[in-house]
Amino acid sequence: MRSKQAATMSDVAREAGVALGTVSKVINGQPVGEAYRLRVEAAVKKLDYQVNPSAKALKSNRSGFIALIIPDTTTPFFALLTQYVNLALEKRGYKMMLCFTGRDADREQEFIRMVRRNQADGIIALTYTPDLEIPAGIPFVTIDRFFSVDVPCIASDNFGGGRLAAQKLAELGCTRLACLRIGSSLVNEPSKRKDGFVSGCMELGLPFEVCNLPDGSPMSAFEVFLKRNILESDQPLDGLFCGNDLLAWQVTGLLRRLGLRVPEDVQVIGFDGIRMFGDQDYICSTIVQPVADIAETAVNMVLSNDFTGLPPLICLPVRYQPGGTTRDSAPHTEG
Amino acid sequence: MRSKQAATMSDVAREAGVALGTVSKVINGQPVGEAYRLRVEAAVKKLDYQVNPSAKALKSNRSGFIALIIPDTTTPFFALLTQYVNLALEKRGYKMMLCFTGRDADREQEFIRMVRRNQADGIIALTYTPDLEIPAGIPFVTIDRFFSVDVPCIASDNFGGGRLAAQKLAELGCTRLACLRIGSSLVNEPSKRKDGFVSGCMELGLPFEVCNLPDGSPMSAFEVFLKRNILESDQPLDGLFCGNDLLAWQVTGLLRRLGLRVPEDVQVIGFDGIRMFGDQDYICSTIVQPVADIAETAVNMVLSNDFTGLPPLICLPVRYQPGGTTRDSAPHTEG
DNA sequence: CAGAAAGCGTGAAACGATTCACGATCAACC
DNA sequence: GGTTGATCGTGAATCGTTTCACGCTTTCTG
Question: What CA–CA distance (Å, rounded) separates B151 from B134?
């Protein structure tokens, strides 16, 4: 029950004494004589005219919405990505439609179907379904998941990041390394973190272990690994690279509970660049993903409906960030 | 460039040999003769017909979107809320349009203006602007922020939660309590957590302190307070209630760094019910907000366009949850 | 069995924008 | 000064629904 009925284009046209088409041109910035433009602008202001997005969408066949398909919003990295994608879309005048899937393949497919009904002009997806049916004819880009050369994928330099982690640990004096992974960092692009780490270790001539656990495994599984390879070993590990920051954070807690000092006895590097309050301290030493760049790039790609000539996988540079779990960190000031 | 042009209602009507209006009735579940219904349904299936949401929105003046206005998506409580609101909306056949404001009043007002352009059928807002201009004529409900009796507000029982925290700390053997707050828990509804806590302490006849810090204050400010009132006091505090879980978590880290044992020397209770990975361990002992209920209620309210007769403030029950920072917790197994 | 009431299919009108063929205006040029 | 072409305003047609007045059937009632 709006107090005043919203003004339409014809109201503006009548008020300004011009034709409908002229109003449309002014609104859309097409060339119009100065005098006309001023009259229309005055009428727009006077009537507080706002374009009706439904009418515009109906006629132009563009909704102005981009769907972001994401496993959940509570994982810090996803939350950060959501925020930056939203920001990047806003800058370009688009709105975001959030679809969180809870890692449910059926929900993912259902969202994509929905989007095909014209609800969105494009899709940015970070999904866990490897055999997802990608809709033809709608801009579709993925983040961190490579499907095929037809589907552009934006990712940070996972391989380079893993390699960098190995190098940093070596630089910091570690001589026996391990890579710990769980769940999502096992699949697809993020899996290259391990590959890069392994490659780095081999280049450095350092011995290393790899320990993989399926999603949802209890920490006790890692506990077994760490006890055997640190407490009970005469050649204990002294440098750990974890598949993501949350894991690194958990592993650090675990190590400390086992009586080991971090970073004095064991140094730990994670991956992602998660901070505690979104903008405060890093929760561990980490390989920081360029989240803002990833979001910007994904948005630019999905809005430029021409993917030809682009590399199917766009890799963005990562950087190393000390964060309290390596010896190069300033004495820590936070929890 | 969809391979086949999407089918419209008239295509379906032609295919089924019925009138346009009949198709509309079938689609919208209005009473239609059995034979007609079957023919239309067959045609819908054959042509893979999907309603065009823009056309529907244009004619019916409802977009099917509800806007969620939220300060950010990275604060765990907000992330959780976002997820549950999304879920509740989905259940009701609505889509969510996410507007994160970064706590910027101008952005908040701009979003509301946008929504008035018919982009959304209602607004659920969690805002920091006390003098927000609430749009008339569009369903608007708030979470945790009371504006006026005309604007329904959903909140958890902040007062009761604060009181419960005091009672629990007393039960667990604490005799000298304090309430620590920062930033967002100082304002509006969440501020009642302190009131409830104070009330609880007075009922129990226990001495208490209150320490408030403005948003963005460094932890060192709390450090001063804690040093003076625990380390340097001959009547040291032994029970802390923090305005939210993140603060409780930081304070716990701070206490441990000061050489105090939690929960042996000092017990800490937070507020919110944040878990580390969204579904794993609570990060501290806490008063859990019923996030799912809050979301459901907010969605139900915003979709029922009749607020008359409802209490302006809807209060949902909280519960206490041990989480490692009080003596009633099972020996902790996580970081 | 006539007449009223109820049930239901029909299709034109409307929602509010975009688009485009058309025509008017005007400057330029030979 | 007449012709050409460019520029630009006009308004009808259109996008794909919803809605509703209309009228045909069928059923009920006395």
Answer: 8
